[in-house]
Write a structure and sequence with these properties.
The complex is a heterodimer of chains A (479) and B (629). By secondary structure, chain A is mostly helical. In chain A, 75% of the residues lie in helices and 1% in strands. A two-stranded antiparallel sheet of chain A has the order 1-2. In chain B, strands 1-2 form a two-stranded antiparallel ribbon. The chains are: A mainly alpha (479), B mainly alpha (629).
Chain lengths: 479, 629
C-alpha cells in the first residue's frame, strides 16, 4: 500500500478484468461477478481502514494528493461502491442485458470518484469529473427499453455537457489569468486576483460545474427527473458517490485553491445553501413517487451540506464531512430497501410501501430508521450531523447577522421535511388498503449491507466522537 | 461488606425479575408462576432480615448510589436510602406482603389468570419497595407512579366486571390528580434548593431553615397532595372504597400494608421539609387527617359489605396517621402504620376467608354464627378487631395512644376529634363482629360454611402474633431514633411498657379507653342478636347519609360535569378549530401551496431546464461581479 495510487489502479484493473471475464463466463453465472467485485472493493476498504492514515504524498507532479481528506472520502466511496454492486446484482432481473458492463461501469465511475478525492489540480479535476459524468450518462440510460430511463440519460447528458462546457471555460479563464492549474500554486497568487473579474468569472464557472454535480440551486433541475428515471442502483450511486465527489472538489477549490476569494463570498454561499434547502424540501412535499421524493430530498441535503461550506470555518467543514458520512449510510439504507420493494412493482408510487411492516418487518424497520435519520431525529446520525452544521452556522452569526437568516431557513427546512419523511413511515405502517402481503426474500449480501448501514447510522449517532475527530483531522489537510 | 451491600439491590429487583419472568416465560404455567412470585418476596424478606441482623438498623453506609446515566454535565443517580425507617418498611412490605402472597395462592387458586395475577402482584411489590428505598424525591416519584400503574392492574384484575373496570380507572385518575400536585411540589423544592436527595435537602434546611422562604407552606402542601392521593385523604378519598372491587388479597395488600401506607411514609420521610419554621403546612395536614378519620368512621357505621367496612376503617386509620404527622409526631404515625399493617392485613385476609367460605357473599346481614364454623378465622379476626379498637395490651392500643398523646400536646380540637373517632371505630368493628360472627346463621350458606384451607389460614395465624404483640417490640423507639422526635421514647420491659401510656400521658390514655368502652357498649346494645339494623330508624337522614357516603361521589360527578366537561369541551374547540384548523392546516396549506407551485417549474421539458440553467449562471455572475467585486 505504499503507492498512493494503489486504490485507483486496483479499481480500474478490476473494471477491465470484469469486461474480460464477461467473455468466458456463461450468462447465468454473471451474478457472481458482481459479488466478486464487491468482495474486492470490501477488501480494499478494509485495507484502507486498517492501514494508518498516510502522510501527505503527491503524485503526477503534485496534480494528485493523498492526504487525510482524500482518505476520508475514498473510504466513503469504497463503501458505497460495495453496496451499489450488491444492489445491482439484486436489480439484475430488470436489466435485460449487459450486467457485466454495468459492473465495470460502476468501477470506472468509482475510479473517477477516487481521483476526485485526491485532486489537486484543475486538469485532474476536469478529468475526474468527466470520468464520473460520462460513465453516469451510460448508467442512467442503462434500461434501454424503458423510455423513462432513456429520457433520464438524455437529460443528464445535455445538462451535464452544458455544465462541463461552463466548467472547462472557467478553467480556461483561470489558466489564462494566472497561468497556473495547480491548486497550491494558485492559492499563493490568488490574493493578487481578488479584483480581477476574469479570474472571478472563471472561478464562478467552476462552481457552476460543481454545483451541477451536487444538485445545488439553481443547477438542480435535472435531479428529480434523472433520479426517477435511472435504475435504482444508479440513483443510489448518484445520490451518494457523485454528490460526495462534487463536495470534495468544491472543498478543494474553495478552501484549497482560492481561500482568500471564498472569504469574500459568504452571502453568495448563504443564498445558495438557504435556497437549496427550501427548494428541495418544498418540492418534496406533494411528491408521491418514492425515487423522485428522494431526488428532492437529495437536493435539500445538498443545501444542508452547503451550510458547512457557507460557515467558512474549519468547524463547518468538519461538520460537512460528518454529515456526509451519516448521509451515505442513511441514503444507501433507503435505496437498499427500495431496490427490494420496487423489484416486483411497476410504478414507484409511495403506495408500494403499503403493508411492508407485515411483508418484511426488517425492511420496514430499516426504511423507518433511514427516514428518521434523514429527518434528523436523535439518536441517529442525521441528528448529530444537522446539529454540528447548525452549530457551525451559529458560531459565525456573531460576526455576520445574515447567518441567522440562514439558520432560520435551515430550521424551517427541517420542519417541512418531517412531513414527507414521516409520510413514508405512515405509508409503511398505517396504509389502509393493503393488497399484497407476500413476504419479501432478502439475500444474505443484501441483509449484510442493510445491517452495515443501520450500524453506521446508529454508531455515528451514538458515538460521534470518532468520526468527528477523523473529519477534523481531514479538514486540517485543506490548510 | 461488599456482599452485604448487594442485598438491598437484590431485595428490590427480585420482584421485578419475577414479574418479567412470569410475563415473558411462564404465563402458561399457573403453579410455577405463583411459586416464582411468592419465592421472590419471601426470599426478599429473609434477605432483609439477614441484612438487618448483619448491619443493624442504622447501617454505616446510609446510601447506596450508582450512576444511571451521564450526558455531558448532567448526571442522574439511582440510589437506595438505608435507615431504620426504610428498613422497617422493607420488613413490613416483604413480610406482610409475603403472607398475602402465600394466602393468594389459596384464594386465587380457581381463577383462570393466576399467572397474570402474580405478575401484577410482583410488579406492585417492586414498585412499593422502590418507594421505600428511594434516596431522592424524583426516584420516589417514578416508583410512586409505578405503584399507581400496578395498583390499576390489580384493582381492575377482574376487568370483565364493569364495576372493577370503573374502580381501577377511578383509583388511577384520583391518584394522578394528587400526583400532579406532588410533582409541582417536587419541582418547587428543586427550584428552591437545587437538589432532591433527602439527606442533602435535610442538611440544607438544617443549615438554613429559611431556604424555602415564602414558598414553605405551598411546597409542603403540594407534596402533601401526593400523600392525599395515595393515602386517600379527603377530598381524594373516594377511590379507596371502590377499589374493593379487586380480589380480596389485593385489598389486603393495597389497603393495609403498602400502597396507602406510601403516602404516610413519604410524609415522614420529608417531615423535616414540612416542619420548617414559618410553614403552616402541618396544621392543614393535621386537620385534613382528623376530618378524614371522622368522616370515614361515620361512613363505616352504616356499611353492610364486610370489605367496605374494613375499607372505610382503613380510610379512618389513615386519617389518624396523617393527623399524627400534623401534630408533629411522625414517630407515632409510623408506629401506627406498622401495627395497622399487621392487623388490617389480617382483618382483610380474615374477611377474604369468610367470603371464600360463603361462596363470595359479602353482606354481613347474610352471615351470622360464623364463630363455630370458622374457628381460626374467628379468633384471628377478634384479635384484629381488638387491636384496631385500641384495647390494651394489643398493638393498636400503643400506637393509637401515641397519636392521642401527641394530639393532646398540640391541639385540643384534634384530640377530641381523635377520641370520638376511636369510639366510632370500636362501635362499627363490634357491629361487624356481632352481626357476622355471633348469633345464629341467617342463610344456608352461613350455616354450611367450612374453614378455609391451611394455605389461607396459616398467614392469618402468623399475622395474629404481631397484631397482638407488636406494641412490646420497641418499634416506636426505633422510629423515634430514626426520625429524631417522639419525646425520648425508650424500649421498656413488658409490664412497664403496658402501663407506660398511662404514666406518660394519662389524659390521652384514659380518653382513648373510655371511648373504646362506650363504643363497645353501644355496639353490644344495638347488635347483639339483632335481626335488622336498628340505626336507620333511630338516626333517619343521618344514617342515610352515612350509608351513601355523604353523597361525595354524586357531588363529584356533578362538579366534574360542571367544570371538567365544560373545560374539555372548550379545549376540544380550541384544538379542533384554532390549533388543528387555523395553525396546523393553515401552515400546512401554505407550504403545500408553495410546493405545488414550485413543482410547476419542474416541467420535465429539457429546453426549459437548459434555459433555467443558463439563467442561473447569469444570475450568479451578476450577483458576484455586479456587486462591485
Amino acid at each position: 500500500m505504499n503507492n498512493p495510487l494503489v486504490l485507483e489502479i486496483v479499481v480500474v484493473v478490476l473494471g477491465l478484468g470484469l469486461l474480460l471475464l464477461d467473455l468466458w463466463l456463461p450468462v447465468e453465472r454473471r451474478r457472481t461477478l458482481g459479488y466478486a467485485a464487491a468482495g474486492v472493493l470490501l477488501l480494499l476498504l478494509l485495507g484502507s481502514c486498517l492501514a494508518a492514515v498516510p502522510e501527505t504524498t503527491h503524485a503526477f507532479g503534485k496534480m494528485y494528493v493523498q492526504d487525510t481528506l482524500a482518505v476520508f472520502f475514498k473510504r466513503l466511496f469504497l463503501f458505497s461502491g460495495v453496496v451499489v454492486l450488491v444492489m445491482a446484482v439484486e436489480f439484475f432481473d430488470k436489466l435485460q442485458a449487459g450486467l457485466s458492463e454495468f459492473f465495470a461501469l460502476v468501477q470506472f465511475a468509482l475510479a473517477g470518484m477516487l481521483f476526485a478525492a485526491s485532486t489537486n489540480d484543475f486538469a485532474l479535476l476536469f478529468v475526474a469529473v468527466e470520468l464520473i459524468t460520462v460513465t453516469f450518462y451510460v448508467l442512467t440510460s442503462f434500461q434501454r427499453n424503458r423510455a423513462l430511463s432513456l429520457e433520464a440519460g438524455v437529460k443528464y447528458l445535455i445538462l451535464g455537457a452544458l455544465s462541463s462546457a461552463f466548467m472547462v471555460f472557467g478553467i480556461a479563464l483561470i489558466y489564462g489569468t494566472t497561468a497556473k492549474l495547480n491548486f497550491g500554486e494558485i492559492a499563493v497568487v490568488a490574493p493578487q486576483f481578488v479584483t480581477n473579474k476574469i479570474f472571478l468569472i472563471g472561478l464562478l464557472l467552476v462552481i457552476v460545474g460543481l454545483g451541477f454535480k451536487i444538485a445545488a440551486f439553481p443547477f438542480q433541475m435535472w435531479a428529480p427527473d434523472v433520479y426517477q428515471g435511472s435504475p435504482t442502483p444508479v440513483t443510489a450511486f448518484l445520490a451518494v458517490g457523485s454528490k460526495a465527489a462534487g463536495f470534495v472538489l468544491l472543498l478543494r477549490v474553495l478552501f484549497g485553491a482560492a481561500p482568500q476569494i471564498t472569504a469574500h463570498w459568504p452571502t453568495l454561499l448563504m443564498v445558495l445553501a438557504g435556497v437549496t434547502i427550501l427548494y428541495g424540501n418544498l418540492c418534496a412535499l406533494p411528491q408521491r413517487n418514492l425515487k423522485r421524493l428522494l431526488g428532492y430530498s437529495s437536493i435539500s441535503n445538498a443545501g444542508y451540506l452547503l451550510l458547512g461550506v457557507a460557515a467558512l470555518s474549519a468547524a463547518g467543514q468538519s461538520a460537512l464531512l460528518y454529515y456526509l458520512a451519516g448521509y451515505v449510510f442513511t441514503v444507501l439504507a433507503a435505496f437498499l430497501v427500495l431496490t427490494l420493494v420496487l423489484r416486483q412493482v411497476e410504478g414507484e408510487d409511495i403506495t408500494a410501501l403499503a403493508g411492508l411492516s407485515q411483508r418484511s418487518p426488517m425492511l420496514a424497520a430499516m426504511l423507518t430508521l433511514a427516514m428518521v435519520s434523514l429527518a434528523g431525529v436523535p439518536p441517529l446520525a442525521g441528528f448529530f450531523g444537522k446539529f454540528l452544521l447548525l452549530k457551525s452556522v451559529v458560531e459565525q452569526a456573531s460576526g455576520n447577522a445574515c447567518y441567522y437568516w440562514l439558520l432560520g431557513a435551515a430550521v424551517l427546512g427541517v420542519v417541512i421535511s418531517l412531513y414527507y419523511y414521516f409520510g413514508v413511515i405512515q405509508a409503511i405502517y398505517w396504509s389502509k388498503d393493503v393488497t399484497d402481503l407476500s413476504p419479501i426474500a432478502i439475500s444474505t449480501p443484501m441483509r449484510l449491507c442493510l445491517w452495515a448501514c443501520a450500524a453506521g447510522m446508529l454508531f455515528l449517532g451514538l458515538f460521534p466522537g470518532w468520526v468527528v475527530n477523523f473529519a477534523t483531522a481531514a479538514v486540517r489537510a485543506l490548510r | 461488606m461488599q456482599a452485604l451491600h448487594a442485598i438491598p439491590w437484590i431485595v428490590l429487583f427480585l420482584p421485578l425479575f419475577a414479574a418479567a419472568g412470569i410475563a415473558l416465560f411462564t404465563l402458561k404455567d399457573r403453579e410455577l408462576s405463583a411459586k416464582v412470585s411468592i419465592g421472590a418476596v419471601v426470599i426478599g424478606f429473609i434477605l432483609t432480615v439477614i441484612f438487618i441482623a448483619a448491619s443493624g438498623w442504622e447501617p454505616q453506609r446510609r446510601e447506596l448510589i450508582v450512576t444511571w446515566l451521564e450526558v455531558g454535565d448532567l448526571q442522574v443517580d439511582f440510589g437506595l436510602r438505608l435507615d431504620a425507617l426504610s428498613l422497617m418498611m422493607l420488613l413490613i412490605v416483604t413480610g406482610v406482603g409475603g403472607a398475602i402472597h402465600v394466602y393468594s395462592y389459596g384464594y386465587m387458586h380457581e381463577d383462570r389468570s393466576v399467572a397474570r395475577y402474580f405478575a401484577s402482584l410482583s410488579l406492585f411489590t417492586f414498585s412499593m419497595l422502590g418507594i421505600v428505598l428511594s434516596n431522592n424525591l424524583l426516584q420516589m416519584f417514578i416508583f410512586w407512579e409505578l405503584v399507581g400503574v400496578s395498583s390499576y392492574l390489580l384493582i381492575g384484575f377482574w376487568y370483565e366486571k364493569p364495576s372493577a373496570a370503573d374502580a381501577c380507572k377511578k383509583a388511577f385518575l384520583t391518584n394522578r390528580l394528587g400526583d400532579f400536585g406532588f410533582m409541582l411540589g417536587i419541582l418547587t423544592v428543586w427550584s428552591l434548593l437545587g437538589s432532591l436527595n433527602f439527606s442533602v435537602l435535610q442538611d440544607e434546611l438544617f443549615k438554613n431553615p429559611a431556604a424555602l422562604g415564602a414558598c414553605a407552606t405551598a411546597a409542603g402542601l403540594l407534596i402533601f397532595c401526593g400523600a392525599m392521593g395515595k393515602s386517600a385523604q379527603f377530598p381524594l378519598h373516594v377511590w379507596l372504597p371502590d377499589a374493593m372491587e379487586g380480589p380480596t388479597p389485593v385489598s389486603a395488600l393495597i389497603h393495609a400494608a403498602t400502597m396507602v401506607a406510601a403516602g404516610v411514609y413519604m410524609l415522614c420521610r420529608v417531615f423535616f421539609l414540612l416542619s420548617v419554621p414559618g410553614s403552616h403546612a402541618l396544621e392543614v395536614i393535621g386537620w385534613i387527617g382528623g376530618f378524614t378519620a371522622l368522616l370515614a368512621a361515620l361512613m363505616a357505621v352504616q356499611q353492610n359489605d364486610i370489605k367496605r367496612i374494613l375499607a372505610y376503617s382503613t380510610l379512618s386509620q389513615l386519617g389518624y396517621m396523617v393527623l399524627a404527622v400534623g401534630v408533629h409526631a411522625p414517630t407515632a404515625a409510623m408506629f401506627h402504620l406498622t401495627t395497622h399493617a399487621f392487623f388490617k392485613a389480617m382483618l382483610f385476609l380474615g374477611a377474604g376467608s369468610v367470603i371464600h367460605a360463603l361462596h363470595h357473599e359479602q353482606d354481613i346481614w347474610q352471615m351470622g354464627g360464623l364463630k363455630k364454623k370458622l374457628p381460626v378465622t374467628h379468633w384471628t379476626f377478634l384479635v384484629g378487631t381488638l387491636a384496631l379498637c385500641g384495647v390494651p395490651p394489643f398493638s393498636g392500643f400503643f400506637s393509637k395512644d401515641a397519636i392521642l398523646a401527641a394530639a393532646v400536646e398540640h391541639s385540643v380540637g384534634l384530640f377530641v376529634l381523635a377520641v370520638a373517632v376511636s369510639g366510632l371505630t370500636t362501635f362499627y368493628m363490634f357491629r361487624l363482629y356481632y352481626v357476622a360472627f355471633l348469633g345464629g346463621a341467617r342463610t344456608d350458606a352461613a350455616s354450611h360454611a367450612h374453614e378455609s384451607p391451611p394455605v389461607m389460614v396459616w398467614p392469618l395465624r402468623v399475622l395474629a402474633v404481631p397484631s397482638a404483640l407488636a406494641g412490646f417490640w420497641g418499634i416506636e423507639a426505633l422510629f423515634s431514633g430514626a426520625l429524631g422526635d417522639g419525646h425520648g421514647v425508650q424500649n421498656l420491659p413488658f409490664l412497664e411498657q403496658l402501663f407506660a401510656p398511662i404514666n406518660h400521658a394519662p389524659l390521652a390514655a384514659l380518653g382513648g379507653l373510655i371511648a373504646v368502652v362506650f363504643g363497645f357498649a353501644f355496639a353490644r346494645e344495638f347488635y347483639q342478636n339483632a335481626a335488622l339494623d336498628p340505626l336507620p330508624q333511630r338516626l333517619g337522614a343521618l344514617a342515610r347519609g352515612m350509608k351513601n357516603r355523604f353523597y361525595f361521589d354524586e357531588i363529584y360527578d356533578f362538579l366534574i360535569a360542571l367544570t371538567q366537561e365544560a373545560l374539555a369541551r372548550f379545549a376540544q374547540f380550541v384544538d379542533r378549530w384554532i390549533i388543528a384548523g387555523l395553525l396546523v392546516r393553515g401552515a400546512h396549506g401554505t407550504t403545500e401551496l408553495f410546493g405545488r407551485a414550485l413543482r410547476l417549474v419542474q416541467t420535465g421539458n429539457l429546453q426549459t431546464y437548459t434555459f433555467l440553467f443558463v439563467l442561473g449562471v447569469a444570475l450568479l455572475l451578476i450577483f458576484v461581479i455586479g456587486n462591485g467585486h
